[in-house]
Amino acid sequence: MRQGFFKEFNSGASSQKSGGRLSGTLLNASFYVFIFLVIISILMLMFSGGNFSYSVKNLGLSLFSGVRGGIYELSSMVSRTVLSVKELADLRKEHTELLKQLERYEELERSNAEIYQENIRLREQLGFAQSLRYRRIPAQISGRDPNNLFSAVVIDKGSFAGVTRDMPVVAWQNGTQALVGKVIQTGAFESLVMPIFDNNALVSSRLSVTRYEGIVEGQGNQETPLLMRFVPKRARDEINIGDIIVSSGMGGIFPAGINIGRVNNIYSPEYETTLEIEVIPMIDFSRLEYVYLIERETPASTGLTDD
């Protein structure tokens, strides 16, 4: 009986313990529900308030404004880049056109300078032509001897223009007329002229002041002085550096009185009875462009003009 009592007592205690645990669990659940409902109430109060709505709107507006500003800045940057590239292309095109225009201006300037210089030379040649006492045929240097048999130059006038063999050729440089050479071969429209510096060139000449005569001959190079030979040694003290040497007219080819060059040096070899005079030509053959061919001497009173 005593055992039955204890069993009932133990079972009652167990029932009490189980009921306490259940009550605690329910109490905890109620507490969580209460907290949840409080939070829900607070949120509802916040959403129902105007300040919160205004803050949300401001937040949305700020976000939208930031996105819009970023898009605007990006589009502006792209637009500026495109415009810069286009402006750069336009500037490059304009630069190219300006360079071309500058080249045209430079060409015009060079052409004007060349025309100006050519006019000066032509006026110089015209003045020389008016001062000649001979029938003259104007010509222009057009080339060199293709066979190199002589130090010859080619002129653009031939037999069709009245040019004949052995015609004297003169030119005008630096305000002075001087001897260039003679015609050695003629074609219909071109001729070969042997200059006085050729090895085969011989010109009867004289000193314009002392009147001593001699023969001027070339040494084969336009950079090398001419030589005047067969001048008597007794003339040594009468000859000065810089004296002019002219053609003497002897031999029937070159008219008398045409300038040849100036005395540059005087040699008196012991084994020779004559002097050797170094002569610098008055013509600078490296700048020679225009020449005149002389047909015959004519008295000034005849008033003969060009054909």
Uncertain regions spanning at least 5 consecutive residues: 298-307
Distance N terminus to C terminus? 179 Å
In what order do the strands lie side by side in the largest sheet?
1-2-5-4-3-12
Topology pattern, helix = H, strand = E: HHEEEEEEEEEEEE
What's the CATH topology name of the largest domain? Thrombin, subunit H
User: What is the CATH architecture descriptor of the largest domain?
Assistant: Beta Barrel
Total helical segments: 2
Shape: rod-shaped
Q: How many strand elements?
A: 12
Largest sheet: 6 strands, antiparallel, barrel
- Oligomeric state, counting identical vs distinct chains: single chain
- Assigned CATH class of the largest domain: Mainly Beta
Q: Which percent band covers the strand fraction? A: 25-35%
| CATH level-4 homologous superfamily of the largest domain | Rod shape-determining protein MreC, domain 2
The value of Rg in angstroms is 58 Å
